[in-house]
UniProtKB/TrEMBL annotation:
Matches recorded under Pfam families: GFA
Domain CENP-V/GFA: 11-139
Keywords assigned by UniProt, alphabetized: Lyase, Metal-binding, Zinc
InterPro entries, alphabetized: CENP-V/GFA (IPR006913), Mss4-like_sf (IPR011057)
Family: Belongs to the Gfa family.
Protein name: CENP-V/GFA domain-containing protein
PROSITE patterns, alphabetized: CENP_V_GFA (PS51891)
Statement: the UniProt record of this protein carries the keyword DNA-binding: no
Molecular function via GO: carbon-sulfur lyase activity; metal ion binding
Superkingdom, taxonomy of origin: Eukaryota
Organism: Dendrothele bispora (strain CBS 962.96)
Length: 175
């Protein structure tokens, strides 16, 4: 293990009731920014209550589950629910916060960016961490005039982001 200071500071987040807390580190060689993307599929919408869900992608070894805030008790792990045969969603069983989505076949989490702490989302790295330059999923569910701004953005990086009609396994990209 290298003891060199990682180039990017670690970030923290958790659920509303703060019983589930996590830290994401960015060791040398990890992807940064962590593939920020959005999804507008029905399951993301219903599970989160948001019209657009913003994710960042982290490899499982990048995540450390922390003790609840103001507590020395061992870290709590999120509860899991299988929302399809391919995927599981992580949430807090106490307060209901949606935390992450995981494809069973991958050792990575799509972490809901809205669960990052305020000091991260209002901090100096917020834009690079969350601007969805990675991909936009389920563009076919876009709501005209409400959630189509990402597809219509003139921002050069967002223009380059991959706009999937559904998810990437289905394979069709928006023209
Ligand atoms: Zn909670
Ligand atoms: Zn989705």
């Amino acid at each position: 293990m290298s003891t060199a200071t990682p180039k990017h500071p670690s970030i923290t987040g958790g659920c509303v009731c703060e019983s589930i807390r996590y830290q994401i580190s960015f060791p040398e060689g990890s992807v940064y920014p962590p593939n920020p993307c959005t999804c507008q599929c029905t399951t993301c919408r219903k599970h989160s209550g948001a019209l657009i869900v913003h994710f960042i992608t982290v490899q499982l070894p990048q995540i450390t589950w922390l003790s609840p805030t103001n507590s020395d008790s061992p870290p709590n792990r999120p509860s899991e629910i299988h929302t399809s045969s391919k995927a599981v969603r992580y949430f807090c069983a106490k307060c209901g916060t949606s935390l992450a989505f995981k494809l069973l076949e991958l050792d990575e989490l799509e972490l809901m960016a809205g669960t990052l702490d305020e000091d991260v989302l209002n901090g100096p790295h917020a834009t690079e961490l969350t601007r969805p330059i990675g991909a936009q999923f389920f563009c076919k569910r876009v709501i005209e005039g409400t959630t189509d701004f990402i597809m219509k953005s003139e921002d050069a990086d967002l223009k380059k982001s991959i706009k999937w009609v559904e998810d990437s396994s289905e394979g069709k990209k928006l023209d």
